[in-house]
Amino acid sequence: PGLGFLTRELLTSSRHVLALEKDDRLFAWGQKHLAGEQLTLLHGVVLASKSQLNPHFVSPLKRLAPQAGVRVVAHLLYGAATPLVLALLCELPALKGLTVMVQWEAAERFAAKCAADPGFGAVSLLLAALCERREIVRAVPRQVFWPRPKVQSAIFRCSPRAGPTEHFAALERVVRGLYCYRRKRLSRAAAAAEHGLGGIRDALEQSSLDGSVPLEQLGLRDFEHLAAVWSQLT
């Protein structure tokens, strides 16, 4: 929440706002100047580990909105944007929408639809599996910040898919493992990834995929199929 500029706007249009502040002084300031029945202000960090949400944040969020749904609106710490977006989409079943400000290059990766789009890669495929809609709302120029940063920013918005994500862990491992060799053909990428993704070559042989196809030409459904076969073998 920082000094509350965005928080105050959210309070005018939300049933309840949960805000998480890491800085000791800003948390104390928020308790004094932002307190109210519509606001739950927590002290801490949002990620408990590199890729897992802090239970201190998740528990009250689920308690506040078990069925009504949750929308995340935030200016994310740029270095943690990718793992945080993935964790929010995976760990919050009631999540209805996510609108965040991130570094421009991250927004391109999040919104990319195919290999021809700037930034397309493993994260683009993973977000396609988790989201029905992804878009860059607009660019945010450097001059609107003080002090002025060296990077360009963007507002990214997505709508999560309904349904469980229990098979996502296998998909993520396969996508990330193979995309380390994105310039290779599928069979060569699988051979190179075998040391960290044991059984992936056997999975490819038992799948219906053509190993001679360039890895970057594979779509989400191809990766989901390969991940399902690999998961059964392992």
Features:
234 residues, alpha/beta, four-stranded mixed sheet, two-stranded parallel sheet, 6 strands, 18% strand, elongated
Number of distinct beta strands: 6
Q: Reading side by side through the largest sheet, how are the strands ordered?
A: 3-4-6-5
What percentage of amino acids are in beta strands?
Answer: 15-25%
Q: What would you call the shape?
A: elongated
Q: Helical proportion?
A: 40-55%
Describe the overall structure.
The termini are far apart. The protein has ten helices and six strands, in the order αβαβαβαβααββαααα. The mean pLDDT is 94. α2 links the parallel β1 (17-21) and β2. It has a four-stranded mixed beta sheet. Helix content is 41%, strand content 18%. The protein has helices spanning 5-11, 24-33, 55-64, 81-91, 104-111, 122-130, 168-178, 186-193, 200-206, 220-233; strands at residues 17-21, 39-43, 70-75, 95-103, 131-140, 153-160. With 234 residues, it is of the alpha/beta class. α9 crosses α10.
Q: What is the gist of this entry?
A:
It is built from 10 helices and 6 strands.
Write the layout of secondary structure elements.
Layout: H1 5-11, E1 17-21, H2 24-33, E2 39-43, H3 55-64, E3 70-75, H4 81-91, E4 95-103, H5 104-111, H6 122-130, E5 131-140, E6 153-160, H7 168-178, H8 186-193, H9 200-206, H10 220-233
Parallel strand pairs: 1-2, 3-4
Antiparallel strand pairs: 4-6, 5-6
Helix pairs in contact: 4-6, 6-7, 7-10, 9-10
